[in-house]
Design goal:
Helix 4 crosses helix 5 and helix 4 packs across helix 10. The two termini are about 20 Å apart. The protein is of the alpha/beta class. About 25% of the residues lie in helices and about 25% in strands. Strands 3, 4, 5, 8, 15 and 16 form a 6-stranded mixed beta sheet that branches. The chain has a 6-stranded parallel beta sheet with strand order 11-10-9-12-13-14, with helices on one face. Bound molecules: NADP nicotinamide-adenine-dinucleotide phosphate (NAP) and zinc ion.
C-alpha cells in the first residue's frame, strides 16, 4: 500500500503539520492522481477546528482539502475515462451508492450514502477519508472530473468546490440575462459567484462588508457594489432582486437581504456558519419570497461547470502558497484577507 505525504491536524486546536498517510492501491475502477494544486476552502477550516461538531464531528488526524487538481499516474483495469498523464480534478465527493434515485439523476451530493473527500468513513482502508492536502489520492473514476487543458491549474483547483457550489444554485434558480442577481461576501465562493453571474449575463451586485474590495469586485464582473453595513446603500435596492446567493462564513443578518428580494425572489444560502440564523416572518411572507440552501453539486453538473469555465476561460483568482504556509493562510482567511482563494502548490510537499 503506497504511503502519501500530507498535512494533517491532530486536534481542533493544533496547527496542520506534516505527516504520512496510507492511500490504497488502485482497484479496477480507480484513478491514482498526483496532486498538483489544492484550494483552501473555508469548510476545511470549519472542519479542522471542529466548528461543525453538532452535524459532522471531526475525526483526528484530519487531512482536509476538496479542491484538487492533478495528473493521473495510474488507472485500474476497468477505467475508461482516464489514462496516465491526463489532467484530473476531484471535489467534495469520492463515492456514493450509485443505485438510489438521487444518484440515478446525477445528484450524488444528495445520496444518503455519499462519501465526502475527507472526514468520512473510508470503506477501503477503514478510518476516515483523507483529503487533498497531500501529494496523491486514489478515487473511483466516476468521481474524477476532466479539467479543461486551457485553464491555469492553480486557479482551476477552487472550481471543484467554490466553483460548483456557486454555479449549481445559479443554474437551478435561472440566473441569466434580464435577472438582477446579488452575491453576498467576496471570499472564495463569493468571487466565483460574481464571475458566474456575470458570465451568465445577469445584472450582478456584490454585497461586501469590506469597502476596500469594491474595485476588485467591479473588475471580477460586478455591475454594482453595495457595502452591506450601510443602510442607505441597502435601502436603494429594496424589493428588487430576482436572486441572491449568500456565501458568508460567519453569522450575519439574513433578513436584511430577504428584504431586497422582489416578488417570488429567492435567497439561497451556501455559507455554513455553525450557529443558527434567525429569520423573521414578514420579509418572507410579503411578496412570496423564498429562502433555501444549496450543497455543492452532482458529478455531471460539476463537469458541466468545468466545461463552462473552459469555454469562458474562468478560473479562481488565487494566491498560490507552499503547504508550509497553510496555518498562516487559515488565520488570514478568518480575517477575510485573501484575494480570493489560497491554492496550495503541492510541489512544496516534496521539499
Ligand atoms: P471565505 O473565502 O472565508 O469567504 C467568506 C466571506 O464572508 C468573506 O470574504 C467576507 O466577505 C464574508 N464575511 C466573513 N465574515 C463575515 C461577517 N462576520 N459578516 C459578514 N460577512 C462576513 O469562505 P468560503 O470558502 O468562500 O466559504 C464561505 C462559506 O461557505 C463557509 O461557511 C463554507 O463552509 C461554506 N461552503 C458551503 C458549501 C456548500 O456546499 N453549501 C461549499 C463550500 C463552502 P466580505 O469581506 O466581502 O464581506
Ligand atoms: Zn469547499
Amino acid at each position: 500500500m503506497p504511503n502519501a505525504k500530507a498535512y494533517a491536524a491532530a486536534s481542533a486546536t493544533s496547527p496542520l503539520a506534516s505527516t504520512t498517510i496510507a492511500r490504497r492501491d488502485p482497484t479496477a475502477n480507480d484513478v491514482q492522481i498526483e496532486i498538483l494544486f489544492c484550494g483552501i476552502c473555508h469548510s476545511d477550516l470549519h472542519q479542522v477546528r471542529d466548528e461543525w461538531n453538532e452535524m459532522m464531528p471531526t475525526v483526528y488526524p484530519c487531512v482536509p482539502g476538496h479542491e484538487i487538481v492533478g495528473r493521473v499516474t495510474k488507472v485500474g483495469s476497468a477505467v475508461t475515462k482516464f489514462k496516465a498523464g491526463d489532467l484530473a480534478g476531484v471535489g467534495c465527493l469520492v463515492d456514493s451508492d450509485r443505485t438510489c434515485a438521487e444518484c440515478k439523476q446525477g445528484n450524488e451530493h444528495f445520496c444518503n450514502n455519499f462519501v465526502l473527500t475527507y472526514n468520512f468513513p473510508d470503506k477501503h482502508l477503514g478510518g476516515v477519508t483523507y483529503g487533498g492536502y497531500s501529494d496523491s489520492i486514489v478515487v473511483d473514476e466516476h468521481f474524477v472530473l476532466k479539467v479543461p487543458a486551457n485553464l491555469n491549474l492553480a486557479g482551476a483547483a477552487p472550481l471543484l468546490c467554490a466553483g460548483i457550489t456557486t454555479y449549481s444554485p445559479m443554474r437551478h434558480w435561472g440566473v441569466g440575462k434580464g435577472k438582477k442577481v446579488g452575491v453576498v461576501g467576496l471570499g472564495g465562493l463569493g468571487h466565483m459567484g460574481v464571475k458566474f453571474a456575470h458570465a451568465l449575463g445577469a445584472h450582478t451586485v456584490l454585497f461586501t462588508t469590506s469597502a476596500h474590495k469594491k474595485d476588485d469586485a467591479l473588475r471580477l464582473g460586478a455591475d454594482e457594489v453595495v457595502i452591506s453595513k450601510n443602510a442607505d446603500e441597502m435601502n436603494k435596492h429594496m424589493g428588487s432582486f430576482d436572486f441572491i446567493l449568500d456565501a458568508v462564513a460567519a453569522p450575519h443578518d439574513l433578513n436584511a437581504f430577504i428584504n431586497l428580494l422582489a416578488r417570488d425572489g429567492n435567497l439561497t444560502l451556501v455559507g455554513a456558519p455553525p450557529t443558527p440564523f434567525q429569520i423573521a416572518a414578514f420579509p418572507l411572507i410579503f411578496r412570496r419570497r423564498s429562502f433555501s440552501g444549496s450543497l455543492i453539486g452532482g458529478i455531471r453538473e460539476t463537469q458541466e461547470m468545468l466545461d463552462f469555465c473552459g469555454a469562458h476561460n474562468i478560473t479562481a483568482d488565487v494566491e498560490v502558497i507552499p503547504i508550509q504556509k497553510v496555518n498562516e493562510a487559515y488565520d488570514r482567511m478568518v480575517r477575510s484577507d485573501v484575494k480570493y482563494r489560497f491554492s496550495i502548490d503541492m510541489g512544496s510537499l516534496k521539499g
